[in-house]
Amino acid sequence: MRVIARWREIDAPILARITDGHGRPRFWQKGGGFDRNVRDEYEFRREVRYIHRNPVERGLVERPEDWRWSSVRWWMGRRDGEFPCDPPPGDPAMWAAWEGFK
């Protein structure tokens, strides 16, 4: 991995914290992640809300739309220099009235 090679090159202190029990550096967190299928619109909305609220829950911003890299900004009409993103699926009027971002 190029990142770990660079960290070795600059003798980054993080290498000591990410080494496994065999002395090998580990770039990704332990665990296999959580893949799952989203089967209906209710689940989709729930997952989107969870993702959009992450920066709020971590105390990084007060509102989801304040997170500079969030698609919620685009969906809510804030298009001030951000990259365009795909619109949410379904009826645009339904999403425009959705309060799930809050």
Q: How would you characterize the overall build of this protein?
A:
The chain is mainly α and 102 residues long. The protein has a domain at 41-96. It is built from five helices and no strands. The chain is elongated, with a radius of gyration of 19 Å. The model has no long low-confidence stretch (mean pLDDT 78).
Radius of gyration over all CA atoms, rounded = 19 Å
In helices, the fraction of residues equals 25-40%
Distance between the ends: 38 Å
The total count of helices amounts to 5
Please give the number of β-strands. Answer: 0
Quaternary structure annotation: single chain
> What proportion strand?
under 5%
Main sheet attributes: strand count, strand direction, barrel closure: none
Overall, the morphology is elongated
List the secondary-structure elements in sequence, H or E. HHHHH
Structural class: mainly alpha
Nearest-integer average pLDDT: 78
Summarize the structure.
The chain is mainly α and 102 residues long. The chain has helices spanning 2-9, 14-17, 41-57, 71-75, 92-96.
Describe the structure using short key phrases.
102 residues, mainly alpha, 5 helices
